[in-house]
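Worked example

This section walks through a single chain of length 203. The input is the sequence exactly as stored; nothing has been trimmed or padded.
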Amino acid sequence: QSVLGDSCAVELSIVVATYNRNEIVTKLLEEFGDIKDECEVIVVDDGSSTPVTPWYPQVKHIRHQSNMGTPKSWNDGIEAASRKVVLTLPDDIHLQFGINELKALSEFAQDKIVGLRVIDKNSIAFNHRKSSNLIYWLSGQVFPSHDEKAGFTDFVSGIMAFPRDIPIRFDEELKGNGFREETDFQLRARRAGYQVYYLPSLA
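Given that input, the structure is written out below as tokens.
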């Protein structure tokens, strides 16, 4: 029996934040395939010098007139979302699962923050270290990995699913590529009573 349980409707809004990487985000949307029809997909263009082209009519597009930072992009995507669960994604990832797994995720994350397993091009898992006091980052693209066991933890990466109606938003003062906005978001969510769950597999 999977920890995800049974699933039905795809109550999932996928929010993709992008800035000056039109080719990359276009490739990601191509890879989504049927996901664009079954889930709500929202692309937030954070003031790219060349606006993101709205190739797909079923994808919602939000454009900032200037670069306002990732936290603002996430927040605007959340406000535009209409499904019960939001999944935040950067534009430079490759999904390794399909619509059935996303259906399950939409059920599992309706009352908690769920962090998914993320691996780099060398198949090395990376995520926040499980520590409520310190979060360690390695140089480059590889971060300390979990032990790959599903369960409640302190922090997960910014590739996370959470209830749309969570009374928390990303701190828009935390700009830059420091990966601080998701850690701050999760810390405040935990203080508000939400749990954080690491889910290395959607099988």
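What to look for: Residues 1-8, 127-146 have pLDDT under 50 and may be disordered.
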